[in-house]
Amino acid sequence: MSGRMGFIGVSTGASSIMRIFPVWAEILELPTRRLEGHDLPLDATDAQYRALVEAIRDDPDHRGALVTTHKMALYAAASDLFDELDEFARACGEVSSIAKRGERLLGHAKDPLTAGLALDEIVGSQAFGGVRDAVVLGAGGAGLALTWRLAEREDAPRRIVVTDTSRARLDHLAEVHARRGTPLELLHLVEASPEATRAVLADAPAGSLVVNASGLGKDRPGSPLPDGTPFPERAVAWEFNYRGSLEFLRQAEAQAAERGLEVVDGWRYFIHGWTQVIAEVFGLEMTPALVERLADAATPFR
Question: How many whole angstroms separate alpha carbon 235 and alpha carbon 237?
Answer without folding.
Answer: 6
